[in-house]
Amino acid sequence: MLLLDAGFSLRELDRRAERAGLDLSGVVGVALTHEHGDHAAGAVRVAARHGVPILASPGTWQALGAGDSVGFLPLTQGSRIALEGFVVTGCPIPHDAAEPLALVVSARDGTSVGLAYDLGRVTVAVRYLLRNLTAIILEANHDEVLLRTASEYPVSVQQRIAGSAGHLSNRCAAELLTSVHHRGLGAVLLAHLSQRANTETAARETIAQAMRAVGFAGAVLVARQDEPVGPVQLAHAAGSQYSLRL
């Protein structure tokens, strides 16, 4: 088992793993997109408890300040880290963090999952990274109209969220997903939804409509902040079945 981000306390990570039917004693590593607390708060503690390394960019690792408490495997652009049956690759993304990454994890059976959130715009590198995957976890942070009319957000915050180092809108997420769609893509999980400038319905309908137009027949799921989603059962293009815990 490989954890992708760990943005909760150790107790909450254990609770969520139990709800999803997972035993964290089988974890082999923790791969991080960046150091912000909602993505990395529990990473050092869970890695130390199980004696497993953290996979991250050098900038993220330095920002974590973990020292010698856990092992570190550096993810740099173009690198491929093999770890207990998984291969992890990454590419830089534009976000206001030390050295954030989008990630792809591939398993021995051909299963591959891409993870991209907290990115202000879609780059050529991100689009290339997310091609030909089995499942994609992608940020659909805000509805553009709801963001502009969110009275709780001052104009400066609205501009940061919508800026090139902020977050993807539902529309931008749909454009990215349709551009990387292929016959083997089995599921899309929409993540990092704003509670003030988005709704599950808006995100799902925007992406599902766009994906249906390009022939996508898989599941469009929405991640909630309070509970885990998985497991998600997918059919590999070759016909074999496997379970993906999202």
What does this structure look like?
With about 250 residues, the chain is an alpha/beta fold. It has 9 helices and 13 strands. The chain has 2 domains: about 1-80, 4-Layer Sandwich (Metallo-beta-lactamase, Chain A), CATH 3.60.15; about 110-245, no CATH class. About 30% of the residues lie in helices and about 25% in strands. The strands form 3 sheets. The protein has a 7-stranded mixed sheet with strand order 5-6-7-8-9-10-11. Strand 1 (about 1-5), helix 1 and strand 2 (about 30) form a beta-alpha-beta unit. It is globular, with a radius of gyration of 17 Å. The termini are close together. Mean pLDDT is about 90; it is low at about 235-245.
Report the end-to-end length measured between terminal Cα atoms: 12 Å
As laid out across the biggest beta sheet, the strand order is 5-6-7-8-9-10-11
Total helix count? 9
Which blocks of ≥5 consecutive residues have pLDDT under 50?
236-244
Name the descriptors.
alpha/beta; Metallo-beta-lactamase, Chain A; seven-stranded mixed beta sheet; four-stranded parallel beta sheet; 30% helix
Topology:
Layout: E1 2-4, H1 10-19, E2 29-31, H2 37-40, H3 43-50, E3 54-56, H4 58-64, E4 72-74, E5 80-83, E6 86-92, E7 101-107, E8 112-116, H5 124-129, E9 135-139, H6 144-148, H7 155-162, H8 170-180, E10 187-191, H9 200-213, E11 219-222, E12 232-235, E13 241-244
Parallel strand pairs: 1-2, 2-3, 3-4, 8-9, 9-10, 10-11
Antiparallel strand pairs: 5-6, 6-7, 7-8, 12-13
Helix pairs in contact: 8-9
